[in-house]
UniProtKB/TrEMBL annotation:
Membrane protein topology class: Single-pass membrane protein
PANTHER family associated with the record: SEC TRANSLOCON ACCESSORY COMPLEX SUBUNIT YAJC
Protein's cellular compartments: Cell membrane
Alphabetized Pfam families for the sequence: YajC
NCBIfam families per the UniProt record, alphabetical: yajC
Keyword flag NADP: no
Family: Belongs to the YajC family.
Family annotation (InterPro entries): Preprotein_translocase_YajC (IPR003849)
Protein name per its UniProtKB record: Preprotein translocase subunit YajC
One cellular component (GO) term of this entry: plasma membrane
Ranges annotated as spanning the membrane: 6-22
Keywords: Cell membrane, Membrane, Protein transport, Translocation, Transmembrane, Transmembrane helix, Transport
Length: 91
């Protein structure tokens, strides 16, 4: 009886670890991959540093983002620096 209790206890602990640590992390990774796949030229984005801009050009892992109303402020950055995307037709 004592060994059955410990095996059950171990199963419960492993199950809790899955639902607390592993499952949310995999959901966040899937959401992030969907976000990166949905990025397109003309989208308004929020960067990790808190700047809002519009994507004007893209390559495999970098984007050129135009910040503010000054058309000369264009900065290349990695796609990973984007945390939020707003499509132009959602505004």
């Amino acid at each position: 009886m004592n060994s059955v209790f410990w095996v059950g206890y171990l199963v419960v602990i492993i199950g809790l670890m899955y639902f607390i640590a592993i499952r949310p992390q995999s959901k966040e990774k899937k959401r992030r991959e969907e976000l990166m796949a949905s990025i397109a030229v003309g989208d308004s984005v929020l960067t990790t540093s808190g700047f809002y801009g519009v994507i004007i050009d893209m390559s495999d892992d970098t984007v050129i983002v135009e910040f503010g109303s000054n058309k000369n402020c264009r900065i290349p950055m990695k796609k990973d620096a984007i945390v939020q995307v707003e499509k132009p037709n959602q505004a």
